[in-house]
Amino acid sequence: MQIKSITLYNSVGNKRTIDFKLGKVNIITGDSSRGKSALLEIVDYCLGRTEFRIPDGVIRDKVAWYAVLFQINKNQVFIAKPKPFENSASQNQVYYDFGTNILIPELAQLEPNSNDDAIKNSLSELIGISPNQTIVEEGGARQQFETNIRHAIYYLFQKQGTIANQDILFHRQQENYIPQTIKDTIPYFLGAIQEDRLKLQKELHQTRQKLGEAQSSLKEAETITKKRVVIGSNLLIEAQQVGLIHSNFIAKDATDIFDALQSTLEWGVTEVILPGNDQFPELQAEVEEIRQNFKQIHEKIIATETFLKKETGFSKEANQQLLRLESINLFKTENSYPNECPFCNSSLPEPIPSLSAMKESLISLQNNVKNVEVSQPRLLEHIQQLKEQRETLRLEIQEKEIAIKAAIDEQEAAQQIRDTNAHIARTVGRISLYLETLEFTDENSQIRSDIEQLKQLIASYEQQLNIGEIKAILVSILNRIGQQMTEWAKRLKLEHSDSPYRFELNKLTVIADRPERPIPMARMGGGENWLGCHLITLLALHKHFVERKRPVPHFLFLDQPTQIYFPSNEGYLNLQATPSDEISGANTDMAAVERMFNFIFDVCEELSPDFQIIIMEHANLGSNERFQNALLEEPWTDGRALVPENWISSI
User: Fold this and answer.
1) Are 508 and 170 in contact (CB under 8 A)?
2) Which of 364, 385, 371, 366 is nearest to 311 (CA)?
3) 354: helix, strand or coil
4) Strand, helix or coil for residue 557
5) Per the confidence metrics, is the pTM higher than 0.90?
6) 343: Cβ–Cβ under 8 A, 6 or more apart, which residues?
7) What is the arrangement of strands in the sheet containing 509-513, beginning at the earlier edge strand?
8) Beta bridge partners of 516
9) Segment 41-73, tens digit of pLDDT
């Protein structure tokens, strides 16, 4: 990722574009207060920084939108952000465009379509920052977070107040929490942390879960195995009780138990054959019908016997009365006087019936008695027939009840067979599970092999994720970077360059390892050494980033690197883009300046086309051909500046 161009828009739609050379040193030189340093803040702003840090003055007042066109391999990303509304100190609305050959849009086309968070995520993905998490050692209080493109800015910018500062090495290092953020994220950018670390952590977690489940299952099975003889003996007794094993069988040892139990697995379910039709409901209906007939006949018998009893009483009483009348010969003579009593011949107030009529009544009574006596045998015979029918029905009821009981017994027997089958099946199931468990816990069983493989896999993941391993890789990388820094320190003729130089990550400084004691950057004398430490560290890091194809934007801003070569800040600011032949008379170490710029050009060319350096300067090395070829525009003097002069006068 490098910078293709920077564009400014004023409120009426005018554009000011600065085009940059990819893979080369780009230099902008000019007077002070011309907006050179603002270029760094504009790029930072368009890289997703919400805080608005553009300097006060015409660059804030006359510019409505700030835009950067980034080149990422063969693709381009155009990012434009408006200045905050009124006096706001921040703004996160973004116009974003992505393509292979983007034309700088007009102001009217700049409508926000994204925000800073989305830009950070998109750019992080485009430059190849994979999903990750920072490393926190066990017991550490810091929260883990994901490294993104915003954590790479510390290696992209060197402001005028940073580039030769003896106390700070990186952009924004003096701000709260930034030093720790740099320490947490640089291992990822250097490549000490695997790109697929999150994936490895997830796989390690899943593998540990699988191992725990397998070990739990194995432990449970081993608990059963320890008691397998006792459990096997109990199962053997149960198998004997349900008839799976002969009751006389006696096991001599565990092998006999296991063999006997194994034989039960051949058991098959006893088939239960039931009649095609269930007779129970039919038999119940038949016996109920017979009982109704039995009841009806029984009621007839009772009614006939009651009638016979009444008839027999009448006959007996009538016969007794007839016998009494016959004993006195009352009706032997005819009485011709109807008003005279036939017994005492006395007169009667009413005439009495004739004797013949009385005889007729008596004869009629005698006939009735005879009829009753004749019907009695028939009634007795009828009653006897009814009783015989009743007895026949009683026997039929008994037969049906026996048949019903037989049907019930048959069903109960079938149910008992089914219950027995179920009981035996349960027993066989427990025996089968038990025997499978014995096989499961065998020393050569599959689960033991799986557990061993899971342990080996976990060990491999842990080794890859080992923080100690990461530290070792990080130390190795920093040692190689230190070797490059040492070589370049000698080239720039820095103090203590006869000793190894190194980047001290824990303190975020540069150290020269003298034989007597290590010398940190803050104790090295002179601004030239401080500037040299910044240059060799940042360029060594970027060389590593480029060569190892690390996901860091491949550009570096250097703001006023020659400032330390002038006797005073005032003298430096008064250079006003003075050519080098005039600078040489201003008590300046021109050899050191030439050496520094040649060093910068050499490193950039070594890494070309994958690295870009952008330098903002007051000085102008007129006799240095490489310097002059690197100039992007005429020096910003005589009205030339970042913001065009006509914007200031017309708006």
Assistant:
1) yes
2) 371
3) coil
4) strand
5) no
6) 330
7) 501-504, 509-513, 518-520
8) none
9) 999 999 999 999 999 889 999 999 999 999 999
